[in-house]
């Protein structure tokens, strides 16, 4: 049996409780695993080492914990309505923010959580939105000189993203989000994701835990994380993430980059040695600096941190105390 301990060894001195994998897995031991091997195969990210054990030991306890949070939020909603002596409007969706580096596996984490949370009868409708759709179109990024800073906070239409999250939390019947294509490496102007009164919304992206910016007049605006009910940061050693990014780049060179419609079709013709060098160059000039400057500093803002080992498996979980 693993141990649960506070960060830094002294359990009283930290606002977090940290559980190693064995201790965390034990929390889900009595809960039935809702996903079949086929469902797990469908949600696997490119090259993510996701298997039944990982789902059972890591994501099952996590989905149970989230389910408890959703229930508690519902109870609080009803208590507040009673206090305000108002007729009972439907409660707004429970919003989960999910952050982490490029290539760390956060898309897979988001899809697994979406599938597992939807299996709980209390909240069958779970929507997933990635913030990629809120990137400025390539044409606009070029105009602003930001094409090589795609993924940095300034490359997103932050006002539109904030408006989207506020609309969800306002309880609107229908909210639309733009769609992004990794194949053409651009926003698809005519395609939208439509969200209709879900129980839970998962918002996944590099910068979703960014604090609010200070405006020119010195005032601080709102951040999308101000509207999250729970947040998750997927973490790993930077060296491991760089290697995963390179491995993924090499796999894409064999698959998606071979598609003539791909924005990166030119990379499909590279030798393996040149492809490795290209992946390292992209990581070292764009993704690595963005991780260090913008993404990693938001880790401490998360409610829960999943820390991965070199083989992609989750080694420990850190949860903020209540």
What does this structure look like?
Helix 3 (52-84) crosses helix 4 (106-118). Strand 5 and strand 6 form a beta hairpin. This protein has a single domain (4-320), classed as 3-Layer(aba) Sandwich (Rossmann fold). The chain has helices at residues 21-26, 37-43, 52-84, 106-118, 138-143, 158-169, 238-254, 272-295; strands at 4-5, 16-20, 94-100, 126-130, 174-181, 186-196, 200-204, 230-235, 304-308, 314-320. It has 322 residues and is of the alpha/beta class. The model is unreliable at 5-10 (pLDDT under 50).
Separation of the first and last Cα atoms: 24 Å
Low-pLDDT ranges: 5-10
Please name the CATH topology. Rossmann fold
**CATH-level-4 superfamily name:** P-loop containing nucleotide triphosphate hydrolases
What is the CATH C level class, in words?
A: Alpha Beta
What CATH architecture do you see? 3-Layer(aba) Sandwich
Helix content: 25-40%
Structural class: alpha/beta
What Rg is obtained from the alpha carbons, in whole angstroms?
20 Å
Q: How large is the share of residues in beta strands?
A: 15-25%
What summary fits the major beta sheet?
8 strands, mixed
Q: Biggest sheet, strands in spatial order?
A: 1-2-10-9-8-3-7-4
Alpha plus pi helix count: 8
* H-E string: EEHHHEHEHHEEEEHHEE
Roughly what is the average pLDDT, rounded to an integer?
90
Shape: globular
- Our count of domains comes out at 1
Total count of strands: 10
